[in-house]
Amino acid sequence: MQLKYPALFQQQCYINGQWLAGSEEEVITNPSNGEVIGHVPTMGQNEAEQCVDAAHKAFSEWKLTTADHRANVLRKWYELMVEHSDDLATILTLEQGKPFAEAKGEIAYAASFVQWYSEEARRAYGEMIPSHRPNGKIVVTKEPIGVVAAITPWNFPAAMITRKCAPAFAAGCAMVLKPAPETPFTALALAKLAEDAGLPKGLFNVVTGDAIAIGGVFTADKRVRKVSFTGSTNVGKILMNQSASTIKKMALELGGNAPFIVFDDADIDAAVEGAMIAKFRNAGQTCVCANRLFVHDAVYDQFAQKLAQKVKALKVGDGFADNVVIGPLINAGAVAKVQAHVEDAVAKGAEALCGAFAKDGELFVAPFVLTQMSDDMLVAQEETFGPLAPLFRFYDEAEVIERANNTESGLAAYLYTRSLGRAWRVGDALEVGMVGINEGLISTAAAPFGGVKESGLGREGSRHGMEEYLEMKYMFMGGLDQ
Ligand code: ADP
């Protein structure tokens, strides 16, 4: 691996400001070719407890620092991420597979959370409320919640970390992090830059290894006051259950099943462009990916043809190769899920306009566009998390709203129409946390990201993302006439 700053490639965990090896190690491979990239320690309960000890101690000092100080440290971390973005993207592409240009985009996005919250650190305002009694004052202050545990996924190995860490540190919290087993090196590189930026020891701890043992400590230890998880709905439910015994605050960013609705009055070319990004970013492996594309009968064939034409032109391959826009999927299980969805749909009458699987063992999938879809197919109910665009035909607005909402998920939705009234009506009616209107890419540090229903709890990004790490304290000051 050619890095300008080789120290970014760390194969040890970062606990209490020290880089620690383990007695056992996990092998990390490149999903593009199966080659070994390196190793990380297999740590468990003891090391997770050490992380919490360190974070608890660091929190007691960090919470007393000024907002200005925290803002400056975060600003430095942001600047280092920007400075080393080529190296960070190289590590990210190696372990995750996404094309290098897209990895650079993720690093910029990840850094933008650190920038945003370096600014927001200064704005954790409280409140004065008119008193209900004479000679009294109602005062509300904001305090950092305490030690936060984060568990993150492999699809955005950098951004899913910074959008938890940055507001946590800005608010005055400390953090213990377990990154995804597939993508630990990006997390450790971020920790290295945090160290360089002057984050005090113990404030940010990164532990790799046994997810169940580490998650057990994170959810049971009384000193951890909040768990922030991004991942599957099933694991989110497990962590919520485990956290019940100590009543922890939870932030859960779970699975989606996003509808992408194209009305007959839409700008079809814009809708096709939007679908390309909403469906195929990160090879379809994002929780806000369009999972069900509903297209009005009057424009269905036109949309299908235009989309398939563009999809056929997408270059699939290794993330470092020129012009590649679709990298490998993360593992064999991910490929098997796409395969199951395609086979189920085709068996029930769907037609594939394009798409193919690589030879055995390879994780490349040439993206699929399926037409003649029906709501009894697997993909209508489950998130594919892969490069498969299924096109469902619809006939009217009320019908498509009902079908779009017919899922336990409620993360993102997209709709394309030229009618202002329809945009508002349908946007209001969709049971989701985020709606893209004539737009396929909605993620930004400036906006609150999160879902409703079984897609989760809480929001990340914007000022609301900072509130997640703050507790309110109400103080009544009485007897002011004395
Ligand atoms: P995916 O299937 O996409 O990998 P998961 O929800 O299984 O999504 O994983 C997301 C994160 O949750 C990863 O860091 C993983 O190691 C972690 N994880 C999975 N199971 C558990 C568990 N029982 N306790 C704690 N963490 C877990």
UniProtKB/TrEMBL annotation:
Q: Which domain of life is it from?
A: Bacteria
Q: Which Gene3D superfamilies match?
A: Aldehyde Dehydrogenase, Chain A, domain 1 (3.40.605.10), Aldehyde Dehydrogenase, Chain A, domain 2 (3.40.309.10)
Offer one Pfam family short name for this entry: Aldedh
Which residues are responsible for catalysis? 253
**Its GO CC terms?**
cytosol
Q: Does the keyword ATP-binding apply?
A: no
Q: Which UniProt keywords apply?
A: Oxidoreductase
Question: What protein is this chain from?
Answer: NAD-dependent succinate-semialdehyde dehydrogenase
Organism for this UniProt entry: Vibrio marinisediminis
